[in-house]
UniProtKB/TrEMBL annotation:
Biological function: Lysosomal dipeptide uniporter that selectively exports lysine, arginine or histidine-containing dipeptides with a net positive charge from the lysosome lumen into the cytosol. Could play a role in a specific type of protein O-glycosylation indirectly regulating macrophages migration and tissue invasion. Also essential for liver homeostasis.
Membrane topology: Multi-pass membrane protein
Compartments (UniProt record): Lysosome membrane
Species annotation: Dechloromonas denitrificans
GO CC, one annotated term: lysosomal membrane
Oligomeric form and interacting partners: Homodimer. Interacts with lysosomal protein GLMP (via lumenal domain); the interaction starts while both proteins are still in the endoplasmic reticulum and is required for stabilization of MFSD1 in lysosomes but has no direct effect on its targeting to lysosomes or transporter activity.
Name used for this protein in its record: Lysosomal dipeptide transporter MFSD1
InterPro entries the UniProt entry points to: MFS, MFS_dom, MFS_trans_sf, MFSD1, Sugar_transporter_CS
Keyword Transport in annotation: yes
Catalytic activity: L-lysyl-L-lysine(out) = L-lysyl-L-lysine(in); L-alpha-aminoacyl-L-arginine(out) = L-alpha-aminoacyl-L-arginine(in); L-histidyl-glycine(out) = L-histidyl-glycine(in); L-lysyl-L-alanine(out) = L-lysyl-L-alanine(in)
Keyword field: Lysosome, Membrane, Transmembrane, Transmembrane helix, Transport
Length: 427
C-alpha cells in the first residue's frame, strides 16, 4: 500500500502479529479435545456419544457464524469483533476449566467456539486493508502456516502439559491468554491505516440486499457444489477424527501410551501445516487444480481404510503414515480456490465461506455420530475410569469417517478445472 508511511508500515506488522497469535489460539481450541479426550471422559464419566457432542459444540457455533462474521467485519470492524471474540472465548475457556459437570462444559465449549469463530475472517479483512493486493495470497498463506502451529500444540504438548498440571489448569491459562489477546486487539489493532482515515476514505458499508443476492448467486451456481462437498468430505473427516478420536483410537486399538499417541497427532497437524503451504504452490506451478485434488482425496480414503483395518504396524510406519495423512489432508485447501474461481470475483469471500461451512457442519454432526455408533457395540468394559471400546466398535465408528472421506474423493471428479484463474461468466 503505497500511501503508508514508515510508522504505519511498522504498525501493520504489529497488528498482524497480534491477530496471528489469536489465530494460533483458535486452532488450538479447535483440536484441544483430541489431546485430552481420556481426561474429559474420566472427569465427566461420559459416553463416547456425549464426548462427541462436547467436542462438536465448537463446530456448531463456528458453522453458524461463517457468513455473519463477514458482515460483522464490514460493519463493526475487525478491531471490535476481535476484542469481543477474545473476551468471549476467554470466558468460555474459564467456564470449561472450572466445569463441574458435562452441561457446564458444553456451555463453556460453545462460548469458546463463538469467541474464536471471528478470528479468521477478521484477519483476512485486515490483511486486505493494510497490505498490497499483490501480497495478499502470500501473507494469508504464511498466516495459515503459523496458525496451524496451534493444532500442533493441541497434540503432544497439550497431552504432556495436561498430565503435568491437569487439563483444567491448561484451559484456565488459555482463558487468560485469550482475554489478554482480546485486550491487545482493542489497544493495538486499527481497522484501517491512518492515511485512509485522513484522506476521507470511508469504510465500506454492507448492503444486506447485496449480501443476500450474492449468497444466492453462490448457492445457485452448480460449479460451487463439487468444491464445497469435497471440502465437506476431506476436511470433515479430518476434523472429526483428528479433532477427537485419533488419540483414544491409538491408545485402545494399538496399545500406544498417551504421549506416543499424542505425538502421532502432532505429526498429522504438522504435516497439514506444511502441506497447506506447499499444495497451493504445486497446484499453481502445474497450472491445474483437479489432478492434485484427485490424488490427495483418494489417497486420504486409502489411509482411512488402513485405519479402519486396525492393522498393527511398527511405530516408525505409523509415524510416517500420520505425517503423510497430514500432507494429504492439506489437499482440501485447494477447494477454496476452486470455489472462488468459479464465482464472481466480488463474491470471493462469500464463496469461500460457503465452501468452508461444509467441513465444520460435517464435524459438528459426525463427532457425536461416531461416538453414538461406538456406544451401540460397547461391551461394558471400563479401563482407568473410562469406557474401553474393542476393535469392532472402533471399526464401526471409523467406517463413518471413512465414508465421509469417500464423499470428498467422489466429488473431486466433478471439480471444474479452472487452470488457476477465474472462469466465471455471467449468464
Amino acid at each position: 500500500m503505497d500511501t503508508l508511511g514508515p510508522e504505519q508500515r511498522r504498525r501493520r506488522w504489529l497488528i498482524l502479529a497480534v491477530v496471528a497469535a489469536a489465530y494460533v489460539l483458535s486452532f488450538f481450541q479447535r483440536f484441544a479435545p483430541a489431546g485430552i479426550a481420556q481426561d474429559l471422559a474420566a472427569a465427566f464419566q461420559t459416553s463416547a456419544a456425549s464426548l462427541g457432542v462436547l467436542a462438536a459444540t465448537y463446530f456448531y457455533v463456528y458453522t453458524i457464524m461463517q457468513v455473519p462474521t463477514g458482515i460483522l467485519a464490514d460493519t463493526l470492524g475487525p478491531r471490535r469483533i476481535l476484542a469481543l471474540g477474545g473476551i468471549v472465548g476467554g470466558l468460555g475457556s474459564f467456564l470449561f476449566g472450572f466445569a463441574p459437570s458435562l452441561d457446564v462444559a458444553l456451555v463453556g465449549r460453545t462460548l469458546i467456539g463463538l469467541g474464536v469463530s471471528v478470528t479468521f475472517i477478521a484477519m483476512l479483512k485486515l490483511i486486505a486493508v493494510w497490505f498490497e493486493e499483490r501480497r495478499f495470497a502470500t501473507i494469508v498463506g504464511i498466516c495459515m502456516l503459523v496458525g496451524n502451529l496451534g493444532s500442533v500444540l493441541a497434540g503432544a504438548p497439550l497431552s504432556a502439559l495436561a498430565q503435568a498440571t491437569g487439563w483444567r489448569g491448561v484451559f484456565l491459562g488459555v482463558g487468560g491468554l485469550s482475554m489478554t489477546l482480546g485486550v491487545l486487539c482493542w489497544l493495538l489493532v486499527r481497522d484501517r491505516p491512518a492515511s485512509l482515515v485522513a484522506g476521507g476514505i470511508e469504510a465500506p458499508r454492507v448492503d444486506r440486499t447485496v449480501v443476500l443476492n450474492g449468497l444466492r448467486t453462490v448457492l445457485k451456481n452448480r460449479a460451487t457444489w463439487p468444491a464445497a462437498l469435497l471440502n465437506t468430505g476431506m476436511c470433515g473427516a479430518f476434523f472429526t477424527f483428528a479433532g477427537l478420536w485419533a488419540t483414544p483410537y491409538l491408545m485402545q486399538v494399538h496399545g500406544l501410551s498417551r504421549n506416543v499417541a499424542a505425538s502421532h497427532l502432532s505429526l498429522w497437524f504438522g504435516g497439514f501445516a506444511v502441506g497447506c503451504f506447499f499444495v497451493g504452490t504445486l497446484s499453481d506451478r502445474l497450472g491445474r487444480r483437479k489432478p492434485v485434488l484427485l490424488v490427495t482425496s483418494h489417497l486420504l480414503v486409502l489411509i482411512f481404510l488402513v485405519f479402519l483395518s486396525c492393522i498393527k504396524m511398527p511405530l516408525a510406519v505409523s509415524y510416517a503414515l500420520f505425517a503423510l495423512t497430514g500432507l494429504t489432508t492439506a489437499g482440501m485447501s485447494l477447494s477454496w480456490a476452486c470455489a472462488k474461481e468459479v464465482n464472481p470475483p466480488l463474491l470471493s469471500g462469500m464463496s469461500t465461506s460457503v465452501t468452508n461451512m461444509g467441513s465444520f457442519l460435517a464435524a459438528a454432526l459426525l463427532q457425536p455420530t461416531v461416538g453414538w455408533v461406538m456406544d451401540l457395540s460397547w461391551q461394558g468394559e471400563m479401563l482407568g475410569g473410562t469406557r474401553f471400546y474393542d476393535v469392532a466398535s472402533w471399526r464401526a465408528g471409523l467406517l463413518v469417517v471413512t465414508l465421509c472421506a469417500a464423499l470428498g474423493a467422489l466429488c473431486s471428479w466433478w471439480i471444474h478445472e479452472t487452470r488457476c484463474r477465474n472462469i466465471w461468466q455471467a449468464s
